[in-house]
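Work package 3, deliverable 3.1, input record:
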Amino acid sequence: MTLTATGFDYVRRLVHRESAIVLAPGKEYLVEARLLPIARQLGMADVGRLVDEVRARPSAESTRRIVEALTTNETSWFRDGDPFTALTSTVLPALLPARGAAERLQIWSAACSSGQEPYTIAMLLQDALPNAATRVAITATDISREMVARTRAGRFSQLEVNRGLPAPMLVRHLTRAGTEWEVAPALRRMVSASECNLAAPLPRMGPFDVVYLRNVLIYFDLPTKQAILRRVRALMRPDGWLFLGAAETTLGVDDSWERVVIGRSSAYRPLKGA
Amino acid sequence: MTETRIPRRRAGDRPPVITELLDEAVVQEIADQAWAALVGEEEVLVPLPGEVPADAVSSWVEVLGPWTGTVVLACGRRTAADLTRALLREHAPAELEDEDVADALGELANVVGGNVKAVLPGPSALGLPEAGTAPAPGAAADTCRVDLLWRGQPLTITVQGAALAPEHEN
Amino acid sequence: MRALVIDDSRAMRRIVSGTLEGLGYETRQAGHGQEALDVLHAGWVPELCSIDWNMPVMDGLQFVSAVRANPAWRAVTLMMVTSEGEQGQIVRALAAGAHEYVIKPFTADAIRDKLALLGLLPQEAAL
């Protein structure tokens, strides 16, 4: 039995309630593909059975697993690389003179998934700053417990390191560990990972000099987008920089940001007095 | 996440046997990735034994290094043809020739074999893929074999030492 | 843009060529390094070569060295696409003059991501 319309609707409401992420009609195939491994692990033949079971006996654990399976997406390293080049070309030269020599730059990767983004940032900074380990702290957060654990481990499959990681950086910053590749300890020490639901009040963090909040807002409805941007802004330094995904903008969502064009990408900075 | 176990080599001049270097889980993980990437995103290999038909076809690559042996892929003729079509997708010719099947199966052995080689102690060299009647199996102690079902059809991947295989000619 | 796909497996040549054509490339194929050099010598000099490592007659590493030895081919971008996956092998290939390295197995997305890094995605496929 495949997923029924009622089953899909149940999953859609559940995911929206827990993560504020909107699963549009037509995403049935996505629900099927993402939930099938969970159904199989639980010894069920198909996703229809799984959803029936969870509806009959809801539990925090099954809810968490379903939400996690549907809110994580495949990431690659330098894909859409402009926000990363902007970090070394524009953001660092602006921030470094404005900060004391003993002050650490605080960078937040706000939806770190399996860790490609925070480690991409760590690699770039390691290559750009001689004393990166003492000058930079990268906070990596994700809604998924599994993704946070993966980020902490800093281990990536062969297929993952094939996705948009330049080969010279692969051999410089990762080493092979059996069938996987492991990020160098120096980079892992720059990154601390924790669970964080952007759609809920945020824990005390920061203040951040740079925030990467990429390909997150697209999943949320307008009021949630506005709430997230407000909360993120409250954790940023007044002269900080925010990077969104290529298809995202603050324009028409929250007018307390100034858009700065850097090469082919854009950054957003808190508007003074807004 | 699978931890890859690479046990320490024992003292002495005896070359290592494959069971000291990798286990079934590693071979399965390598095969899973090859299938997911090349055969299709939704394609899974179920670790269940099945009877590989008598008309089985094989492809293999040789690994030469601190451990020397072959990585052999074996399945029935129909499975081999289905795999070839899945691999080539829209680029598959209307009529598959034997050579297409041998080539596709050989390339899968090359991909699995290359990744097996990468987890073994090096430096090692990889031979060119071959297809036909597989080399004779070596000693059981120097063999690591996984039995899999792909679309319900049996398929085996065997990493086997060259110890008892015919002398390699070069 | 033009790409020369060099691999001894015809299945792999079709897969890589199909991916590149989908991104807007015009492709040609060669079964080993010498055949690929013949194509270049005949005047068909592409923007990109996709190069397998283990091949009969002339392997991918020898091909990379041969291309880098000829200043006339300086503009050709060399991308290894091979099942050789050890760190040391990647370092060797980069040292010989390869620009990028894709480990088999790979997905079409992996090829596209690498081309994006290399600035070699034809304009219409850039997004």
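Chain C has a mean pLDDT of 94.
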